[in-house]
Amino acid sequence: MRRRVFLAGLALLAGAALSPPAAAADLVVATVGPMTGQYAIFGEQLRRGAELAVETINGAGGVLGRKLRLEVGDDACDPKQAVAVANRLAGRKVALVAGHYCSSSSIPASAIYHEAGILQITPASTAPALTDDAAKKGWKTVFRTYGRDDAQAKVSGRLLLDRFGDRPVAILHDKTSYGRGLADATRAVYRQGGKREAMYEAVTQGDKDFTALVSRMKAARIGAIYLGGYHTEAGLIVRQARDQGLDAVMISGDALVTDEFWKIAGAAGTGTLMTFGPDPREEPAAKAVVEQFRRGGYEPEGYALYTCAAIQVWAAAAEKARSVKSGPVAAALRAGAFDTVVGTLRFDAKGDVVDPKYAVYSWQDGRYAVAIPAR
């Protein structure tokens, strides 16, 4: 009996020796954004971009011989929910988080990712505080593939001075990290040009009735409304302004880069101006990816390609570092230049994109087109 057990054990050992080695475990990467709620259109952009990046990288052999597996987190652009998602991802030891969308979510989540040794590359959070605060604390784990609000504000502030310098201007913000930061940075550039806004007001996300605000702007004969905020409030404000006979031009930032703005504003949105980077869909390097998206019935507007780029740069840096640990990958990101679907990206010491460009776009007939090219 003992001999049979011994022989059986030898057979098992021989079988194990002859079996192929187990495949390396998948590398888990994540994207997090508002998959539900009023900004879900942007969450879809992040998810779609991440899905295609993972599919493409896996098709080319993965990262360091390991396939990627994507997890999608929903923070609904709520800071508390963002923290809960970040803690969950930290427990799962993901290698990368391509997110979040809202700066007010990215900022508190970044502390959790840093503590867990997870690299965070946001394709959309633009508040300077995200990388400024991380740098002050000595963190090396925070990056972004899109520019900061203070860079964007140089364009929007000059636009107010050059196009509307002879008209009263109202500057509004929605109290969020993104909205207030962008409005205040734009106001600073406007004031540096020797002008002062006629009105500076806060609005509340989720409000539907801006009648009283529009009445005050009409009484002040406002000619241009600058909003630091999102497409929902922008669409409602400009529509209600037209209803009251106020023809002030609405101007805002990159959060209007969605056809959802037009669905809310309708024809009242005609002539609305916004700042955004050069359309990444026009990049030669993005041609094949854009065509792949469109074959699947999806138009990769907004941040879809910036999310794809976030995962691309992480994968390329991991290959250079021969590691997926956040320290070596972060060092490789700061030391190199990376070809992506949105062009070649380089990062400074804080993790910000070097020399971001912005164009001014105008909304007409449900579409936006370049009004002032990026310089």
List the main descriptive attributes of the protein structure presented here:
Rossmann fold, seven-stranded mixed sheet, five-stranded parallel sheet, 14 strands
Could you walk me through the main structural features you see in this protein, from its secondary elements to its overall organization?
The chain is of the alpha/beta class and 375 residues long. The chain folds into two domains: 27-146 and 281-346, Rossmann fold; 150-276, Rossmann fold, CATH 3.40.50.2300. It has 13 helices and 14 strands. The strands form three sheets. A seven-stranded mixed beta sheet has the order 7-6-8-9-10-13-14. A hairpin with a 2-residue loop joins strand 13 and strand 14 (367-372). The radius of gyration is 24 Å and the shape is globular.
